[in-house]
Amino acid sequence: MAGFSSFAPWDEPGKKPLIEIKSVSKFFGAFEAIHDLSVNIYEREFFAILGPSGCGKTTLMRMLAGFETPTSGQILLDGQNIGPVPPAKRPVNMMFQSYALFPHLTVEKNIAFGLKREGVAAGEISDRITDIMKLVQLTDFGRRKPHQLSGGQRQRVALARALVKRPRLLLLDEPLGALDKKLRQQTQFELMNIQETLGTTFVIVTHDQEEAMTVSSRIAVMNNGEIAQVAPPTDLYEQPSSRFVADFIGEVNIIEGRCAPAARDGISLAWNEGSDDLRIASDATSQIGTTAWLALRPEKVGITKTRPEGTDNAVQGEVIDIAYLGNITTYHVELPTGAIIKAQESNLQRVANRGITWEDTVWVHWSADAGVLLTA
Amino acid sequence: MGPLERRCRRLVNGMKSTFGQRLFVLLPYLWLLVLFLAPFVIVLKISLSDLAVSRPPYTPQFDYREGWAGIKTFFAELDFENFIFLAEDSLYVNAYLSSLKIAGVSTILTLLIGYSIAYALARSPQRWRGTLVMLVILPFWTSFLIRVYAWIGILKTEGLLNQLLLHIGMISEPLTIMNTNTAVYIGIVYSYLPFMILPIYATLEKMDESLLEAAEDLGSSRLAAFFLVTLPLSLPGVIAGCFLVFIPALGEFVIPDLLGGSDTLMIGKTLWVEFFSNRDWPLASAVAIVLLMLLIVPIILFQKQQEKQELGR
Amino acid sequence: MTRRFSWFNTTSLTLGMAFLYLPILLLIIYSFNASKLVTVWGGWSTKWYSSLLENEAFLEAAWVTIRVAFISATVATFLGTLAAYALVRAGKFRGRTLFTGMVYAPLVMPEVITGLSLLLLFISFGMDRGITTIILAHITFGMCFASVVVSSRLVSFDSSLEEAACDLGCTPVQAFFSVTLPVIAPAIAAAWLLAFTLSLDDLVIASFTSGPGATTLPMKIYSSVRLGVTPEINALSTIMIAVVSLGVILASLAGKRAEISRSET
Q1: Using CA atoms, how far apart are residues A2 and A232, in angstroms rounded to an integer?
Q2: How high is the ipTM of this complex?
């Protein structure tokens, strides 16, 4: 999945969404946490809400769970307004950031908690607990108390406790934030497998863009209480709609300039007096004459000591920093305007010596279709 | 400084430290042995002695000048007479039973009132909480005796409570509260309320609020979430609070003496009367020993509970 | 998340505070009552305060009480701090369980038992009862409360600070005086205040351990109170409440200020 399969219900015309958020706003006193936000979430989606802290993503999730009510607007589930439904009555369950496992109950009793409230028969409860504990690989831990478990095990208990209720929608609030990096990566794949097995709709809130990119079918990037862009991970990375999104997802070079008609096809960007205009493959001819920004991913920028032949764009600059990360090396090149362009090279050979070092004068270059022209 | 020299210095430092640390322990240890433990041994001894018209008013006296023979006769003269007397005289048995009842009932009343106040404190807005907790603690610093005394003016027949109730017409005859067990309950609840509120508040305050949201999210009502999550999690505070009220209330003297009536039987008062009015020291000691026996179980349970709490942290 | 007072919580807090403070408030108001009949209001007057100041027996008792409280609180805080240090930092030593038991038991021990047992001890030692014996008794229970207050601060105090001091060349004893003591100083002050007020407050233990000529203020109040409510006792209570409340409020404000200045640096 994650954008590579043909799973794309949001592109199917006439498909009914599971969740419709319709121009929802939320005020805390005078502070507007969510501003006129609308988005649809479809059945079986793994939907990520991504944003810096304070962007309103947690508030949005808490409104889905029922802990906050929208100041205006509606949230529909299967076409029904769930605004007046209290959290206890919603077919929505949540996995809390702190996991919120009941410390006085065993793992089994924690998981059984929700089923007992529903009045499920004892026999069925034990069957469902057995199944879910097998799914999250906790079979031998039923009689332990939460404080006797590792962080990863607690995370899985929290997941099992929410999933065993068979919710229409599962909310995950920074589910992997408390785990260390290795475990987090492994758990991401486990989460994806579980989601695929059960077919439950997942909404995950996170500030970790790598996590969102890995697990989700679509990502909503939020900023200041609004959605900046909703798109599958690949589109978000390659076709960001604004400088904020381009900058928030991965690394990016931004070059400001003025759009001008190109000699051949595309657009050219006048960015620096005395330098050649930059050639950009874009059909946004309506932007001609306005200010725009070229967003350029570092891995799409090459670096050479001599002026390269046959590239669309080449700019001269001075190497001021080199960051060797093992698999890749990032060169920070200062342009005559004072702007820094980052160029990334994969270290394909074990001893990679391109002969480029600090204070060298180099050329950075990229093709016309390497970057995206942004107008916001 | 060479390595050898350094090692010597470390050795000297080490010796100094153990001596210093030993002194730290030794001083309070000795003090408590002499002024806390030894007195209990003496109480035990005197409780086994007989009343005598002398100074001090009991026999046998321990006479170390007679050597071994003295010790032997000393032990030979000790007996359980006082304890047998306590067990046979229904006055004492009733005093113990009534103390247990009064302490138990007041503990439950204190728990009910204290829990709702502690709960309200823990759920109050952050910026008010410090002030409110301070307000709960403040009366505890003012004199116990004065706080009990304050109730006399309120509860007595021509007191302020009766004046108020008569004035608003809720009653036509003044109520008799003063010098009854009811007054003793009020006095104990009032005096010991902070001891109940604070430990419960401490457990409620550190409780993760997302637990309640989780309970709600999993389908329980607010009321059910209170009984399924909040109450069990505050249980350590409840238990600590109950011990802190029950144990001292059992041996309470001032409150039953000032607020209670002549028929209010409490063992602390009995001991006081036995000692100061009847001057029967051996019997008073025996009363104390039995009270201590009654208390030892709850005190040990309380210690265990506190240790468990500390380990859990 | 901001929280507001809910209906239930407001009610229980209001009732709770009224229960805690109304009796004290009434006591204070009636200390200014002109009437000799304590429950009949006869207009405002401060005459009971002036008659109190002329009552030599009360003044004498007050002076005894303050001396006892000051000396016993000081010694109790010293011993209690040592005891707390032993409990928290000394690790395992022989008789630790007994020691812990002896530190905590007096906290819950009924006063009649403590008083009786100490009295019998003093008699078997042949000591004359008086101010000294009251002080000894008060030190004993005061140090236990003091050690609880200090040890709760010591537990939360990072022992690596002491290790750092030792690493920089202090002996453990030097480390205690140059690092530990300044850090736990507020707790020691609180412990002293607690031991002081407990001593000020004590009736039962003082009654057992005092002898002729040594009457503390609570003993004096008790013997008058047994005869009924008097306006003079109301006035005296008001003075004591005012002094103690002022002390506690000032101490907590000082503590708060120290905390703020610490967080600012």
Answers
A1: 8
A2: 0.85
